[in-house]
Amino acid sequence: GLSRTEILTRMHDRLDQSRFDHCVRVEAAARDLAVRFGLDVDRAGLAGLLHDYAKQVPVADYLRVIQREDYSDKLLRYNRGIWHGVVGTYFIRRELGIDDAQVLQAIERHTTGNPHMTPLDMTTFVADYIEPLRHLPMQVQARRLAQHSLTAATIAELQGTLTYLIGRHQLVYPLTLKTFNALVTKEN
Ligand code: DGI
Ligand code: FE
Ligand code: FE
Ligand code: FE
């Protein structure tokens, strides 16, 4: 596979500087979480590093891939906010040759979560939300919760995201709500 340096070069071609820097911070945050919770540190780091690789793929490219590949037409109701996770792995596979199923799944789930998300999936999801430049109140709380519980931090993030979307009358991707329901069911 590609070395980390080669991956960074490819990421620089796809992302502006601030998004690139965010990805490097998420890599470090994901590695920290993996150490804390006894998970595969290199997998967590790779998923964290690559999680937003497809954030700036042109809309036309997304539309083409959603229509030609085996994706649901329902995805057309959403935008790059949703596509860069759910469909983003298509570009990561093709352009970088990444084929680790656990890494790809964590990236696929990093925006919406998934009712069956694994601890590795949660490291990507939570690292994205608590990297050092995140300062919203719920992000600060999730960072604190992540000292002890990946699930608690994940639920806090879902609360923050759902509240934000609903407050702005933005479409909620059903999987995000299903993830919230699944995790609070286990919690209570
Ligand atoms: O890519 P990042 O900005 O680093 O973080 P992210 O992948 O968690 O994406 C956050 C954005 O995605 C934020 O603007 C809210 C949006 N988002 C998250 N869940 C949903 C969603 N947007 C819609 N429409 N529906 C969702 O369920
Ligand atoms: Fe993202
Ligand atoms: Fe996120
Ligand atoms: Fe991100």
UniProtKB/TrEMBL annotation:
<dbReference type="GO" id="GO:0008803">
    <property type="term" value="F:bis(5'-nucleosyl)-tetraphosphatase (symmetrical) activity"/>
</dbReference>
<keyword id="KW-0479">Metal-binding</keyword>
<keyword id="KW-0408">Iron</keyword>
<dbReference type="GO" id="GO:0046872">
    <property type="term" value="F:metal ion binding"/>
</dbReference>
<protein>
    <recommendedName>
        <fullName>bis(5'-nucleosyl)-tetraphosphatase (symmetrical)</fullName>
        <ecNumber>3.6.1.41</ecNumber>
    </recommendedName>
</protein>
<feature type="domain" description="HD">
    <location>
        <begin position="19"/>
        <end position="133"/>
    </location>
</feature>
<dbReference type="InterPro" id="IPR051094">
    <property type="entry name" value="Diverse_Catalytic_Enzymes"/>
</dbReference>
<dbReference type="InterPro" id="IPR005249">
    <property type="entry name" value="YqeK"/>
</dbReference>
<keyword id="KW-0547">Nucleotide-binding</keyword>
<dbReference type="Pfam" id="PF01966">
    <property type="entry name" value="HD"/>
</dbReference>
<dbReference type="GO" id="GO:0000166">
    <property type="term" value="F:nucleotide binding"/>
</dbReference>
<dbReference type="InterPro" id="IPR006674">
    <property type="entry name" value="HD_domain"/>
</dbReference>
<keyword id="KW-0378">Hydrolase</keyword>
<dbReference type="InterPro" id="IPR003607">
    <property type="entry name" value="HD/PDEase_dom"/>
</dbReference>
